[in-house]
Design goal:
- This protein is α/β, with parallel strands linked by helices and 338 residues long.
- 42% of the residues lie in helices and 16% in strands.
- It has a single domain, classed as TIM Barrel, CATH 3.20.20.30.
- The strands form 2 sheets. It has an 8-stranded parallel β-barrel with strand order 1-2-3-4-7-8-9-11, surrounded by 6 helices. Strands 5-6 form a two-stranded antiparallel ribbon.
- β1, α1 and β2 form a beta-alpha-beta unit.
- It comes from Sphingomonas mollis.
- Pfam families: Bac_luciferase (PF00296).
- This is LLM class flavin-dependent oxidoreductase.
- InterPro entries: Luciferase-like_dom, Luciferase-like_sf, SsuD_RutA_monooxygenase.
C-alpha cells in the first residue's frame, strides 16, 4: 500500500470544527510537506478550488499550482498529485507550465484531473461551466491536447472545445506524469479507462470498493492499456484504544448548526451521479472519508487496510486533523516508517 495525504490548502478538513490549528499558509504547508517526506509518505494530493469548500467561501484557500511549484523545489521524493480542472486551464498553456513544474520536481509531478462540479465558482470567475456529459467530453479533448504537447515535437488539434496549430512544448516533462481521475458515471468511467493511468475513488467500505476496482480493471484491459492503479480517499483516526478513537470521531461529527459551506455540498450532489441521500453527519468530512472507518487502534487500522489491499487498492489518500500531529502518529503506529 502507498500512503498519500491531502495538502491542507483549505486550512483543515473538518466542517464542524472552525479552527483546526492548521492555517492555509505556505509556512504550514512547507513544514508539513518536508516532515511528511521524512515520515515516509509517498504522495500528496493538492486540491484545486479557488473558493474554500471546507471552511466557507470567504475563507483563505491556497492556489494549487503555484503551491505545487513551491513544494517541488523543497522536496526530493514525494509524488505531487495536483488537481486540475480543464475548464480553468487552457490545455496547451497548461502543458507548458506543468512540464516546467515536473522539471523542477525531477519527474515527480502527477495530475488529478477533475471535471468541475461547482457552477457558482465558475460563474464568479467568468468561466464556462458545462453540463455533466459535456464536462467529460471537454476533459477527453483536454487530455488529448496535453498528452500531444508532452509527446510530440509539434501538435495540431481541431476539436469541439480546443484547437492548436503546430504548438510546441519545450522542455517536455522529465517523465510523463501519471494521470489520476475519479468519477462514477458511465461517461466518466469510459473516459478514465481509455485515457488515464489511475482511478481514484471516494471513501467506501471494502464491499463497495472491490467491485469498482474489478469493473475498472476489466474496462482498462479492453482498451489494451497498462494495468490501472487504484486509490481511495479516507479520514483516519488512530488511538491507543478503540474508546479513545470513538470519542474523537464523536467530537468531529457532532453538528449543532449547518456549517458555512453546506449549500456548496448540496450543489455538488446535484451535479453528480452519486447517491443523493448522505447524512449531515457524514458532511463533517469531505469525500466520504468516514465510510472506510479507519478509526481505531493501530492493529484495527492495519487489518482494515490489509482488506483494501487484498481487494486491489494500492493507494490511500488520507485526511487527518490536526494534520501535522496526526500524520506523524499514523506514520509511527500504522505505517511503521517514522
Amino acid at each position: 500500500m502507498r500512503y498519500g495525504y491531502w495538502t491542507p490548502v483549505f486550512g483543515g478538513w473538518l466542517r464542524n470544527v472552525p479552527d483546526e490549528g492548521m492555517e492555509a499558509s505556505w509556512d504550514y504547508t512547507k513544514r508539513l510537506t518536508q516532515d511528511a517526506e521524512h515520515w515516509g509518505y509517498d504522495l500528496t494530493l493538492i486540491a484545486e478550488l479557488n473558493l474554500n469548500d471546507i471552511k466557507g467561501i470567504d475563507q483563505p484557500a491556497l492556489d494549487a499550482w503555484s503551491t505545487a511549484a513551491a513544494m517541488a523545489a523543497v522536496t526530493e521524493r514525494l509524488e505531487l498529485m495536483v488537481a486540475v480542472r480543464p475548464n480553468f486551464h487552457h490545455p496547451a498553456l497548461f502543458a507548458k507550465a506543468a512540464a516546467n513544474i515536473d522539471r523542477i520536481a525531477g519527474g515527480r509531478l502527477a495530475l488529478n484531473v477533475v471535471s468541475s462540479w461547482w457552477a457558482d465558482e465558475a460563474t464568479q470567475y467568468g468561466l464556462q461551466f458545462d453540463q455533466h456529459d459535456d464536462r467529460y467530453a471537454r476533459t477527453q479533448e483536454w487530455l488529448t491536447v496535453v498528452d500531444g504537447l508532452w509527446t510530440e515535437d509539434r501538435f495540431s488539434f481541431d476539436g469541439q472545445f480546443y484547437r492548436t496549430q503546430g504548438a510546441i512544448c519545450a522542455p517536455k516533462p522529465a517523465s510523463r506524469p501519471t494521470v489520476y481521475a475519479g468519477g462514477e458515471s458511465e461517461k466518466a468511467k469510459t473516459m478514465i479507462a481509455a485515457q488515464c493511468d489511475a482511478y481514484v475513488m471516494h471513501g467506501d467500505p471494502v464491499a463497495a470498493i472491490a467491485p469498482k476496482i474489478a469493473d475498472m480493471a476489466v474496462r482498462r484491459e479492453a482498451t489494451g492499456g497498462a494495468p490501472m492503479q487504484f486509490g481511495m480517499a479516507a479520514y483516519a483516526i488512530v488511538r491507543d484504544s478503540e474508546a479513545e478513537a470513538k470519542r474523537e470521531l464523536e467530537r468531529i461529527t457532532t453538528v449543532t448548526d449547518l456549517p458555512p459551506g453546506f449549500a456548496n455540498f448540496d450543489q455538488w450532489l446535484s451535479g453528480t451521479q452519486l447517491e443523493r441521500e448522505l447524512k449531515l453527519q457524514e458532511y463533517s468530512v469531505s469525500n466520504r472519508g468516514l465510510r472506510p472507518h479507519l478509526v481505531g487502534t493501530p492493529e484495527q487500522l492495519k487489518e482494515r487496510i490489509a482488506e483494501y489491499e487484498a481487494a486491489g487498492l494500492d493507494l490511500l489518500l488520507l485526511q487527518m486533523s490536526p494534520q501535522h500531529e496526526e500524520m506523524e502518529r499514523f506514520a509511527v503506529q500504522v505505517m511503521g516508517t517514522a
